[in-house]
Every structure is written in structure tokens, then in C-alpha cells.
Design goal:
The complex is a heterodimer of chains A (384) and B (47). Chain A has 384 residues and is α/β, with parallel strands linked by helices. Chain A contains nine helices and 15 strands. In chain A, strands 2, 3, 4, 5, 10, 11, 12, 13 and 14 form a nine-stranded mixed β-sheet that branches. In chain A, strands 1-15 form a two-stranded antiparallel sheet. Chain A is globular and about 80 Å long. The termini of chain A are far apart. The mean pLDDT of chain A is 96. With 47 residues, chain B is mainly α. Helix content of chain B is 81%, strand content 0%. The radius of gyration of chain B is 12 Å and the shape is elongated. The relative contact order of chain B is 0.18. Classes of the chains: A alpha/beta (384), B mainly alpha (47). At the A-B interface, α1 of A face α1 and α2 of B.
């Protein structure tokens, strides 16, 4: 019997060594980001709240300032690090946007800690790759919530600050439930608190939080907006439907559901928040294996059968919901938000060129807009 | 947070002790080790 125990212990050791090594490498792998010609300043989020300095919660903030003063917009990617279209859309902007008027502030990996862990029990791939003209670019696939290595243990019930609403324990690690945050709170409350400080200090007019949502979830393929930004959101939705022929309907931000970016940013600052959702079939539960191919092309036979029974909230056919379509939608909707805002308030206009729209991204692919970090000047490459 | 690591170490030690005391059922031994995996990963600060 002792021999069996020893064999089992050796098997356990091998299992731990293999999985531990892979998880360690994933946590410490950094994605190179090439700062494009429009980037004028790069700082850490801890500039606005020194408490997160040197922790996994800290992340890069890219400033793209125009020659002419105007309004400013904050773009958040990877609020949920298992919804990579937000990250990719933010990186396309960082690498290509050139601002003529106003300022763009982009945080591509808002929940930095979540991007360095994986989802337990769902068999997620640790990485995904995007084809570019110069080769494949590798990205970490993260989780919805921050790593328990950075914020642990979870409370039995998460009590939202300052509204004191009782939320699920897991949402204490979800930066889309911890707005507006507090300086001495949990690390994820500190992240949102730092972002709130940034919004106030930089006088941000618009905040666009980019996400992806399941095809079986009703709040998908949409633009979530609170009362104060609802009118503008409606104009954006109608315009992209008419001009670019894709749907992104408006969902009202529920006033009694606390902690969400589209609720708290609007309530606790002057900024107008918007949360963008594109359908990401990979997040649905009744699907085949969660492979990298499925993440990128969004094709699944089980979802197709459900679509034929009208069980999905978005149109779904054999072509799936590829990444190009999701990123393209986000880029078009984001640009339309600036455009509509600039028309309303010309003195706070934000004029940006160089960012592709939906049809261009669908035609050329997302990777077409990424620059080769090995041939870029070293001072232009940031590792996140 | 350090006290939670002590609790994890204690639970891991108990599970290992049960594994070591198990004399007959191999399936139980395997189950003890499987339950031990996340606790060890946490103690090693891998996940």
C-alpha cells in the first residue's frame, strides 16, 4: 500500500509541476504594446492613487493629446479580462489614433490582476494569438475577476461602498462592481477609486467601458447608458445602424444596481459613461470546448441549434461572431460617441483620425492594425 | 491575510494526514490528493 501512496504522490508532484509552471509563466508573461504616433504621455494608474503603486492592480494609462484643446474621453479595455475585444479595441486606438482636438486617455488592461489569472473550472486557453502582417501576436486570456493571489480571501457577502448594497462575494474582485471605489478599500476598490480620481483630475467628459457578453444574455450587442447619456447613446445607436448596418441597441443603466461603471461614474462625477457590449459566444455555457479557435471565430454547433430554436438574443448563423466583427463594432460605436458629443458641445469636441471603423476591421482583420514591437523604437514599447 | 494561509496549511496537512492513514481504498487516496491540489497551489502562490 505504501508503494501505491508513493506512486500517487509522484503523480501529484508531476501534475503540480506541469500546471504550476504553466500558470506561473502565464502570470508573468507581458504583452508588448507599441505606443503609436498619437501617444504623448504614458503614466501608471498609481499616479492618481499611490496606494496601488508596485501592486498587480497598477496598470498603464496612455494619453493621446491633440494640438487644440477640447474635451476628453477615457477608454477602458479589459475591465473583464476574459472579454478580449475590449483590450484589442483599446490597443488598436493606442497604436493608430492621432488626436487633432481634445484628449484620449486609454487604459487597455483596466483589471490588470484579472488578466494574469485564468478562469478556474472552465478549461480556458491561457493565451490567444492574433495574426498580423509581421507574424502572430500573443495575448494572455484572463478571467472576469482579479486573481485571488492579489485579493484574498473573498468576503461572505460583498457590501458595496458607499451604497451598502449586498452583492455576490465574487464581485469584490470584479472592477465592474466596485465603482466608485475608495482609497483604503480592497485592491479592486482602489483601482476604481484611482480611475475616479483620474476622471475628476483630467476633467473627463466621456467614459467608454468596453465589454463582451454572452449571446444568451439579454444585455448583449448593446450600449448601456444612464439617464444623462441616454439621448446621446440613442443617436449613436441609430447612426451606426443607418450608416454601418450593424445593431447596437440602447439599454438603460438600472438605477438600483450599484457598483457598475455606467451607473457610478455618472452619479459620482461629471462624466457621461457608456458601457459597450458585443456578443462573445465563447462566454456562453452550453457550448463545445472553450478553444482558442472558438474564442476568435465565435462558431459553435450547439449555439447554432439554440439559435434555430430562438433561444439567443442576437442573430447567429454558421459564420459565428468573429473577433473582427466584435472589435470593429466597438471601434465604430466609440468613435460615434465622440462624434455625436463633439456635435453637441463644439467647445469640448474630441476629433480623432486614424482609427478604423467596422467595415475596415472586418475586411482587414484586427492584426492589420498592430505594429511590430521588435522593429519599433525601444522607448515606444510598453510591457503590460 | 497571513492567517488564511495558516488555515490553508492546516487543512492541507489534515488532508495529507488522512491520505497517509488510508490503508485500503485507492480511490479515496486519489480523492484526497485531488482536493489537496488547489490548497498546495495556493500555498505555493501559483494560483
Amino acid at each position: 500500500m505504501t508503494r501505491i501512496k508513493l506512486v500517487l504522490l509522484i503523480c501529484l508532484g508531476i501534475m503540480l509541476a506541469i500546471s504550476g509552471f504553466q500558470l506561473y509563466r502565464h502570470r508573468h508573461y507581458s504583452v508588448p504594446i507599441v505606443a503609436g504616433p498619437g501617444v504623448t504621455k504614458v503614466v501608471k494608474l498609481s499616479t492618481y492613487l499611490p496606494a496601488i503603486k508596485g501592486t498587480m492592480a497598477d496598470t498603464w494609462v496612455f494619453f493621446l493629446e491633440g494640438q487644440e484643446p477640447g474635451g476628453s474621453a477615457l477608454i477602458l479595455g479589459n475591465t473583464h479580462a476574459n472579454e478580449p475585444e475590449g483590450l484589442l479595441a483599446a490597443l488598436v486606438m493606442i497604436e493608430n489614433a492621432q488626436v487633432e482636438k481634445g484628449t484620449l486617455i486609454i487604459i487597455p488592461q483596466f483589471n490588470h490582476s484579472a488578466s494574469r489569472t485564468t478562469r478556474p473550472g472552465d478549461g480556458y486557453p491561457l493565451y490567444f494569438h492574433i495574426s498580423t502582417p509581421w507574424g502572430e501576436k500573443r495575448f494572455r486570456l484572463g478571467n472576469r475577476d482579479a486573481s485571488p493571489l492579489d485579493q484574498w480571501p473573498d468576503p461572505d457577502v460583498y457590501i458595496h461602498y458607499p451604497e451598502r448594497q449586498l452583492l455576490s462575494f465574487i464581485d469584490a474582485r470584479n472592477v465592474n462592481r466596485t465603482w466608485p471605489g475608495r482609497p483604503n478599500g480592497l485592491p479592486m476598490e482602489q483601482v476604481t477609486c484611482a480611475a475616479m480620481e483620474l476622471i475628476k483630475k483630467e476633467k473627463v467628459d466621456l467614459v467608454v467601458d468596453i465589454h463582451g457578453a454572452e449571446t444568451m444574455f439579454p444585455v448583449t450587442n448593446c450600449l448601456v447608458a444612464p439617464e444623462k447619456s441616454a439621448k446621446l447613446a440613442t443617436m449613436v445607436s441609430l447612426t451606426v445602424k443607418a450608416r454601418e448596418n450593424f445593431d447596437s441597441h440602447v439599454e438603460p443603466s438600472p438605477p438600483k444596481f450599484r457598483g457598475l461603471s455606467h451607473r457610478e461614474i455618472g452619479d459620482y462625477s461629471e462624466a457621461w459613461p457608456f458601457l459597450l457590449e458585443a456578443p462573445i459566444p465563447f462566454l456562453d455555457q452550453p457550448t463545445g470546448p472553450k478553444t482558442e479557435k472558438f474564442l476568435l471565430d465565435g462558431r459553435d454547433p450547439f449555439l447554432l441549434r439554440l439559435a434555430r430554436k430562438n433561444k439567443l438574443f442576437v442573430p447567429y448563423d454558421e459564420s459565428g461572431w468573429p473577433m473582427e466583427k466584435r472589435v470593429g463594432q466597438h471601434l465604430s460605436v466609440t468613435q460615434e460617441i465622440w462624434r455625436q458629443y463633439s456635435r453637441r458641445t463644439p467647445e469640448r469636441a474630441i476629433i480623432v483620425r486614424g482609427v478604423p471603423r467596422y467595415a475596415e476591421v472586418v475586411e482587414k482583420g484586427v492584426g492589420y492594425y498592430f505594429h511590430d514591437p521588435s522593429s519599433a523604437p525601444r522607448e515606444k514599447v510598453y510591457f503590460n | 491575510m497571513i492567517s488564511y494561509y495558516f488555515i490553508t496549511a492546516f487543512v492541507a496537512a489534515m488532508i495529507f494526514w488522512n491520505f497517509w492513514l488510508e490503508k485500503k481504498k485507492v480511490d479515496r487516496m486519489v480523492l484526497y490528493l485531488l482536493v489537496l491540489v488547489p490548497l498546495l497551489l495556493r500555498l505555493l502562490r501559483v494560483k
